[in-house]
Amino acid sequence: MAAGFDSLLPAPLELKTRDPLDEPHPELAGKREAESLRRRVKKPASQMSATSSSVPEAARTFDRRLLKESSRVIRKNASASLIDIGDGIGLVEFHTKANAINDEIAEMLEIAVQEGAGYFGALVIGNLAEHFSAGANLEQLLADSTEGNWRDAERFTQRLQNANLCLKCGSLPVVAAPAGYALGGGCEICLHSAHVRVSAGARMGLVEARIGLIPAGGGTKELTLRALADCSGAGAADPMPFLKNAFDLMMSGTVSVSGEDALRKFLSPADSICADESARLTSAKQIALGLIGVQHKNQIPKTAIRILGWAGMDYFQNAIEILRSNGTFTEHDALIARHIARVLCGGEQAAGTTTEQHLLDLERESFLFLLGHHKTRERIRHMLKRNERLQN
């Protein structure tokens, strides 16, 4: 092993006992149904409360009946619901198997931000299930790849990217409240939220490389932006050490062992941990009210992102070749790694600046290319059949 590339080495690739990806992956839900949004919301945004973000002792246990009262469900399809939980706060709840992300969930996220902006002051994304989301629906991705449904695969990927960009840059502040697994697309939703109220036991990670893909719901883009922000915050001139850390997280498929670990690896110091699981959604709602109170403004899409271009890609390529030649990476691992590096460095161009949308476009291109590769299909098929990782 050549010196100088230690930080590029991923965590051991073999599975650990009770790895979160050992869980069976979900199927798509059934048909859609929708209800009128405007008729069902009880209070316009102009009348919304802006209370303190502290959690009243009497409300420490979230009222589960709140999620079941049909009068509060203001928009619904087969995979997700938009629920009025009072005080001008909307809740987006997933209800697919393992809360897997599909086209209908992405659609509901867009609806919640775009149509809900006239009625809600903020949104919470969460549920009372064991897991926030196990990631994308692998059976549907495998079917699209096997049958050549590239239009459907691209539409889903682009819709998830657009939905997450709406969460980050739309008119409503969004609080994500993950518990259990928040993997792949579930992690990406958190990365695009204004605040993350994470449970103490949350298992969070961008695990797409494990099944032959790269994060393409904005996850690779977000880790790129955060690496560059960390570089700037540290007063460092060279962003490569920070980009290499992001590379490591994605290539190794690192999953946090706790909420505190998730804060260190994936989230922001401004995010917070909820030690009392029974109060997670209640406290997320109170944080959302607090964001209204301080008139929180979401970010705008970035248009001058520093990129290393060809020079950065060449550096990564040299490191990837060392890891391939010494057996750490298979040929397919090396291909995935090159596509991650491509996004991290802004693609095939000279060093300079680029836009957030360009990084999303690179993500989507690489994701679709890898989805069409027979070794990626082998990995997905093996995961679905054996519930374990194939390193082919």
Would you kindly provide a brief summary of this structure?
With 392 residues, the protein is of the alpha/beta class. The chain contains 13 helices and 11 strands.
What do these coordinates show?
It is built from 13 helices and eleven strands. By secondary structure, the protein is of the alpha/beta class. It has one domain: Alpha-Beta Complex (2-enoyl-CoA Hydratase, Chain A, domain 1), CATH 3.90.226. A seven-stranded mixed β-sheet has the order 1-2-3-4-5-7-9, with helices on both faces. The chain has a two-stranded parallel ribbon with strand order 6-8. Helix 2 packs parallel to helix 4, helix 6 runs antiparallel to helix 7 and helix 11 runs antiparallel to helix 12. The longest helix is centred in the middle third of the chain and has 20 residues. The chain is globular and about 60 Å long. The chain starts with 36 loop residues before the first helix and ends in a 6-residue tail after the last helix. The N terminus is likely disordered.
CATH hierarchy, class: Alpha Beta
Structural class: alpha/beta
Average residue pLDDT: 85
First and last CA, distance: 21 Å
Give the name of the CATH superfamily.
2-enoyl-CoA Hydratase, Chain A, domain 1
Rg over alpha carbons: 20 Å
Q: How many DSSP H or I helices?
A: 13
Amount of helix:
40-55%
Main attributes of the structure:
alpha/beta, two-stranded parallel ribbon, disordered N terminus, 13 helices, 7-stranded mixed beta sheet, 392 residues, 2-enoyl-CoA Hydratase, Chain A, domain 1
